[in-house]
Amino acid sequence: MTLTEKILQHVKDLPESLQAEVLDFIEYLESRVAKSKEGVSETEWSALSLSFAMRGMEDEYSPYTLGKEA
């Protein structure tokens, strides 16, 4: 028996009100997966955009420093 079949069997044995809760949880998990995929995509686009915006500026003088100055 596959995992999907085991899950279906357990869900079938639940009262309908609890089946609705299972469905809500599944939809919540699906939304988390979708957001996770979108987040990776947005992060990749942000990094790409920043790299193109900063291209050629690597050797330019910057008055800013990394870290605290004493």
Walkthrough of the structure:
The protein is mostly helical and 70 residues long. The protein has a domain at 15-52. It contains 2 helices and no strands. It has helices at residues 3-13, 16-54. It is rod-shaped, with a radius of gyration of 24 Å. The termini are far apart.
Helix content: over 70%
Biggest β-sheet description: none
Count of separate DSSP helical elements = 2
Structural class, judged by helices and strands?
Answer: mainly alpha
Question: Which radius of gyration do the C-alpha atoms yield?
Answer: 24 Å
Pfam family, one: DUF2281
InterPro entries: DUF2281
Protein name: DUF2281 domain-containing protein
Domain DUF2281: 6-46
What are its keywords?
single chain; 70 residues; mainly alpha; 71% helix; 0% strand
SSE blueprint:
Elements: H1 3-13, H2 16-54
Domain DUF2281: 6-46
Organism: Candidatus Hakubella thermalkaliphila
Protein name: DUF2281 domain-containing protein
Brief overview, please?
This protein has two helices and no strands. Helices cover 71% and strands 0% of the residues.
